[in-house]
Amino acid sequence: MREAITKQFKVKNTSNGNIILANCAATESALERMVGLLGRKSISTDEGLWIESCNSIHTFFMRFPIDAIFLDANGRILKIYHELKPWRMSWIHFRAHSVLELASGQSNQLHLQVGEVLQPCSTS
Asked: Looking at residue 19, which CATH number applies to its domain?
């Protein structure tokens, strides 16, 4: 996604065994969490950004809408925001441990549901 974000992996829905993302990046620093998808013109349907230690997001200064999936410490989906437009904020989800940001509409396309479990897996 960005040159500074080097940790790449696939994301698997362990509830049904499907790989939902072929190209996901994870933030590893406070700066990466703060920057996130800012500065990008779009995100493709096969990529995502996994932001750890996160229970709320905003889309200030973003150029495109996204889907945001809030996950607990075990990867269980707590809340899905569909097509979160630029200049919006999510609620604070106190049980959330991370958020997975996807291209707008992807959570519906992938038929993701609250309660399913998402986990990173190797790229090979």
From this structure: 2.60.120.1140
